[in-house]
Amino acid sequence: MSKKLVRFDWAIKRLLRNKANFVVLEGFLSELLFEDIKIKEILESESNQESWEDKYNRVDILTENSRQELVIIEIQNTYEIDYFHRMVYGASKAIAEHLNLGEPYASVRKVISINIVYFDLGQGQDYIYKGVTTFQGLHYNDILQLSEKQKSTFAKTLVSDIFPEYYIIKVNQFNDVAKDTLDEWIYFLKNSEVRDDFRAKGLKEAREALDIMRLDKENQYHYNRYLDYLHWKASEALNVELEAQEKLKIEIVKNLIQLGSDDEFIAKATNLPLSQVQEIRKKYYG
Predict the structure, then answer these.
(1) pLDDT confidence tier of residue 249, bands split at 50, 70 and 90
(2) Of 214, 229, 246, which closes a domain?
(3) pTM for this structure?
(4) 240-274 b/e with 16+ CB inside 10 Å = b?
(5) How far apart are CA 276 and CA 74, in angstroms?
(6) Are 269 and 183 part of one and the same domain?
């Protein structure tokens, strides 16, 4: 039997920053990146604010694997048309923040940017996307490779191993059918539930650590405030969408008026009340 758990997007800002709960994040990252990940530390930066109203909901994680990579997890609940740009900025900022003054460029850490979005970002049918940087020849269509000296010096195999790597998880696009252990994690991200038959790394621990009934009074208060915040943001986004639709209808009415259409025809064509069409004509054309 599944039970309702704390939302991952709130837990990662509070509960999962506790070292005792690192196993949950390690499980998620291991399933997504297809290798065993160990968290070395949660990095403190100006973006790691724990406020429930933190718009930029970003957590920097220093992981420990053969490449000692830096992982950024960003979670966004409401639509942002420039989110792709924000991804680029976040990865660039992480690189700059964690390169000490005077260090050579060879010390730049590999950054993996994991973006969990609860809206339809871009156009595409999948719910998990991975992006890497490659350089393709304009004349021979070959892919630029590292030299043997660069491979041995930097312990890298591909040019893309140096540049940031991006993952986009479009949570709401998932159809709730978990075909593998990574899908089990996506199911949890979407529904805040862990089914009894799930076997993905970290989910068993998540089921215990994120049990709503186990929250103390302080965390219950902050969690409820966060849920209120999400409701407010959803209402705000809906109002913005409705306002945009209204402005579009007004522009359509104005165009039809300029083309010489009468009010009755415009009302039928736009599905607007005749009185509203007449008000628009009077307001803009006297």
Answers:
(1) confident
(2) 214
(3) 0.77
(4) eeeeeeeeebbeebbebbeeeeebeebbeebebee
(5) 44
(6) no
